[in-house]
Amino acid sequence: MSIKYDYEAVVIGSGFGGSINTCRLARRWPGAVLLLERGRRYPMGSFPRSPHDVANSFWNLTPEQRQRPKAIAVQETHGLFDIRNFDHIDAVVSAGLGGGSLIYANVFLEPPEEVFDDNWPAAARKDALQPYYAVSKEVLGARPVPQSSDPRRKVIRTELFQEFAQSEGRESKLLDINVFFGNDFDNPTAIGIQEKNRYGAVQTSCVYCAECDLGCNTHSKNSLDLNYLHVAEHRHAARIETEALGQKIVPLDERGEEDPSATGEHGYRVYWLDLKNGHVECSALSRRVVVSAGTLGSTELLMRCRDLHKTLPAISQQLGQHFSANGDFLSFVIDGKKAANPNYGPVITQGTDYNLLKDFDRRHAFILEDASYPNFAAWYTEGIRPGLSHFHAFVRTVRLMASRFLKGLSTGHIGYAFNELLKGGLSYTSIVLLCMGIDKGNGVMSLCKEGFIHVKWPYRENKGLYDAIERMGKRFRDWTGAKVFVPLPNWLWPMKRNVTVHALGGCRLADSPQRGVTSAAPETFGQVFGYQGLYVADGALLPTAVGANPVATISALSERVAEGITGIRPTADL
């Protein structure tokens, strides 16, 4: 008897891998692809900004509140930011339609060929991926910040980082970023003007608000809901279910019944929780499944299926190995003597190379990128100045006003007094240093006793990279005449906890299940060893750190996975 499938494919997760595969598979099978996304949709203008809304913008499911202090009330929120706390590493990931593209820093940067060492199968190396880099770059609209005579397009911190690079004898270059400045790359659309992009979604020419990492309320960021997902849903009739949390994948036998001993040749039943309706369990039959829930989410789901539910027992024991934080390291140079204005412009504009893109040195390779942060955070920065500084500014202002009164000046302009009170020197001259590089990729993911993902990160074995970044940061401090260089506080002794926004690995591509979890063979690229029709497409595939922002490589690999499934060579014509 033939099995009546609900879908040709179910995709779990809507980050770069999930969005690309949803679009490509829906083009191959219109109306027969289901996308499950645990987070919400975010239409233009809906990202949180008020203190109340931001407080509720974190991912917080009741079953996952394992270490909640009793004094804190139980509260479930399906917010944008999912912050995970692990062993010597913390991770920030996104929950929402578009995944990490909603809050990432926009950079599209290909790593050098030297990154693709023997840990990378031949079919997944730079030369093999080059066509897929090119296609995804075109779809995502990557380009540098426009250089024009319009003074509003001048980003002071870009020039500051370029000058520092010159002082270091290093090369700084403007980076390609997935930000909308209009459809014509040669003639940017005026700031703040809206138009439809090439795929029919309405976007606003970037307003330089520095809020990229909080979700772009003007839809100036080329997030996935405005390209791949927009086309998948509106042109190819993909069904998109938000607030739908993937739970379990079970292979079927020839009758369509669940059979954990089967290997996928008859398809799968996929289970998920409907978070909008009291965690009701739902399911569907599908010929194939693409797991794209991000490095942490995909690894956790497959581990739970293998080790808890016992529905996918044949998955390689390499699952969870080779976790990488992509060398992420965040630090600050505070209260310098050079203008930085970090509250203006796209969050990243340039990259300064430290033996990553040229003169490759695997031991210490990293890239230094500038960073902006929103204006409301600048007010907070000014608010945490030592109280004496505020008192002195207030006293000076009172003296100015008193002097006018004593001299009989009762009329006239007094803006200079408020300028003295509010000039905000600390936030204007403080700098964020974003670095990422080649770590050893030797972290291990496993399930904790409650059945959730846990990461063990050997920070001491990666300290050589972190030390090189810290030395550079101290030179930046000295060059700007700043008072303080400080890494993100949780890196300080005794905690020694790093933070990553680029978790990679866990389901790495390989030529055999003894070396990885997913196949790199051209005909089964991204397919889980031991199973037919079960694929992974996200950062979990990467065998090592790439040093560069990983979006470009994740996108290229995901395009390659989709081509293997559909048999259709991808182009930017979605």
Characterise the protein shown here.
- InterPro entries: Cholesterol_Oxidase, FAD/NAD-bd_sf, GMC_OxRdtase_N, GMC_OxRtase_C.
- Its EC number is 1.1.3.6, 5.3.3.1.
- Belongs to the GMC oxidoreductase family.
- This protein is of the alpha/beta class.
- The protein is 25% helix and 19% strand.
- The chain contains twelve helices and 24 strands.
- Strands 1, 2, 10, 11, 12, 13 and 24 form a seven-stranded mixed sheet that branches. A six-stranded antiparallel sheet has the order 7-15-16-17-14-20. A three-stranded mixed sheet has the order 5-6-21, with no helix packed on it.
- A hairpin with a 5-residue loop joins strand 12 (268-274) and strand 13 (280-291).
Number of domains: 1
**Global Rg:** 25 Å
Mean pLDDT: 91
> Could you give the count of β-strands?
24
Query: Which fold name fills CATH's third level, the topology?
Result: FAD/NAD(P)-binding domain
Helix content range? 25-40%
Report strand %.
15-25%
Helices and strands: which structural class?
A: alpha/beta
Report how far apart the termini are.
36 Å
Query: How would you characterize the largest beta sheet?
Result: 7 strands, mixed
Characterize the overall form.
Answer: globular
Q: What's the CATH first level?
A: Alpha Beta
Low-confidence stretches: 386-398, 409-414, 416-422
* Quaternary: single chain
CATH architecture: 3-Layer(bba) Sandwich
What is the count of helical runs? 12
CATH superfamily: FAD/NAD(P)-binding domain
